[in-house]
Every structure is written in structure tokens, then in C-alpha cells.
Amino acid sequence: MTRSVLFVFGTRPEAIKMAPVIERVRDHDGLRAVVAVTAQHREMLDQVLELFGIVPDFDLDLMRDRQLPEEVLARAVTALSALIRDTQPDIVLVQGDTTTTLAGALAGFYAHVPVGHLEAGLRTGNLASPFPEEANRRLVSQLAALSFAPTRHAADRLLAEGADPASVIVTGNTVVDAVTEVATRAATLPPELAALVSGERRLAVVTLHRRESWGEPLEQACLGVRDVLDAVSDLVVVLPVHRNPVVSEVVERVLGDHERAVLTDPLGYLEFVQLLKACTIVLSDSGGLQEEAAALGKPLLLLRETTERPEGAEAGTLKLVGTDRSAIARETQALLSDADAYRAMSEAPNPFGDGRASERIVAAIEEFLA
Description:
alpha/beta; Rossmann fold; seven-stranded parallel β-sheet; 16% strand
């Protein structure tokens, strides 16, 4: 008997982390993958779908200009509930902590279909940081029949919150599966980036987009990056600029005129991974980049006040710096000038997985459905 697994996602990070599991399910004789996307992030999602050869069975196309989280949630729950009633999957899989993740879990719960949660158990302990992701993932944990924890630390958080031990499975993070595979592929970078990658100057990859950083924290972070460029003469910064004008206007105003700040449009995932492979250091407020940088041996300075991935800080693959201008400049310069400290971070063991997370997840789904 073939069981159907409904994958629900809507953003680029979700697609990247779902892709290895979709591939494993497709290769499994007793399971059938059904893919539904909300297109919470349309353009960036489509890049990843093409990269991994995923053609959605259902594209709900819910994206709207300047949409609010509550609007996305309402439309997604309604559309996904109808879809689940029509398709009657044996299990619904959601990933991470987006609004689509919460919508998929709610829709599955309302339809009495078990929910599996990839990347479960991440917590900062602060509902406002990251916002709304911290609340989303806590709520999904209350609905999940299976919680796929990426690390032992994440599993322990779920158990401390009262999760059934039988429902919590430590798997590793599927992004390690994805990024290590994509890193083996060849990519053609835009000429200006190809020149930087092959040049003699050191390269810093910077990403900034988190909602809780909007306003003064984002301004301070950009000023800190500019101070680093002024102090380190052989450093070039590449910053793919988020399309949200709340972010792009600040980034372009503070860094747009610096000769060694290269501001680009958002890059495809293949190109971005090639850039990560070539860089010296990463400065970011991202969630998933904490794992991707560790998998590729790139030290990451986290431009946030909290992290739901303390394993990285404990292992030494990342350092929590915050958004204070002087702290960013000080910590970046210190790392770039201390060869021993840099080596310790770049050679620290990756705490986020061994590249076999998708195998463990599919095995657990098979056992659960049996």
C-alpha cells in the first residue's frame, strides 16, 4: 500500500530544507510525495524549485504585495484545508517556522491528519525575536505528531516542554544534506562576482533582512559593516539586498556609495552557495545561514541579539555579535586579524548534522505510517 506524504512550504529556505526529503520520498516504493506550495516568496521560491527539479502538484500562489503575516496565515489555512480534504494525505510535513509552516500544521490538525515538523525544537525563549518565527515554531510543536529535531539540544527543548518522547526524533538538519550536495555543482557567477571570487582580496558575505532588525538595529548593522570596510583595506563585502524596501532603502543609503561594498540583487541558491564557498567570513542575521556556513567551514558573526541555534556558538562555528555598530566592527576586525581564532572557527566541527538527515526522516515516517 502506497502512503501519501503532503509537503507544504512557501519560502526559499523551506524549499531548500524540504528538497532532500522530497527526493528520498520519491525514491521510496511505499511512499508518494505530493508537493503544495503557497508561494509566500514567489520569485525566490521558484529559483529553488527549478534548482532541485521540483514541480509542485499544487501551487496556491498566495503571494500579495506588502502582505502581512496574518493575511498570509488566513489565506493559507483556508486554501490548505480545502486541499487536504480533497487529497486526503496520510501525513502533512511542514518545515521550520514560517507563516506557511503554521498554516500547514493548523490545516492538518483541523483535518485530523498527522503533522510532521522538520527542524523542530528551535527556541530563543523570546517571542519577539525572531518575530513571528519564535511563536510559529512553538505553536507547531503543540500540533505535531512527529517532531524531527535537528540536534540533541533541540530535542531536549521539546521534551522539557512536555513532548511525547516517542514523537521526537533527532535527525540532523536537512540543510546540511542540501548545501553539501549543491556545493558540488558548477555555477556561473555574474562577471562582477566572478572577478571578486578569483581576486586576491578577502571576501565577506553579508545578509540582513530580519523583521526585528528593521529600523535602528538595521541602520547600526550597516554602519558597522561600513566601519569594517574602512578599517580593513583588503576586504570586499558582497551583500545580496533583500527586496523589501524597508531593508533595501537603508542598505543602499548606508553602503551604496562605498567602493568595496558590492550590493547585488538576490542570488539564486546555486550562485549563493558558490559565493559562500569562496568567502572568508559571513556576517548575517539569518537563521539557516548559521547552519550553511558551519557546513562549509565559514566563520559566521551573527548580527542578532538572540539565536535559536546555540549549538553553533557552543561548537565555535558562530559568534553572537548583535547589531551594535562598534561591536560589529570590533569583532569582525579581531577575527580577521587573528589567524588562530579564525582557524578555530573555520575548523570547528559542524554541530548541525552529517548530511543524512533526510534518510532518518523518511525512515521515521515509514515506521510511523506502518
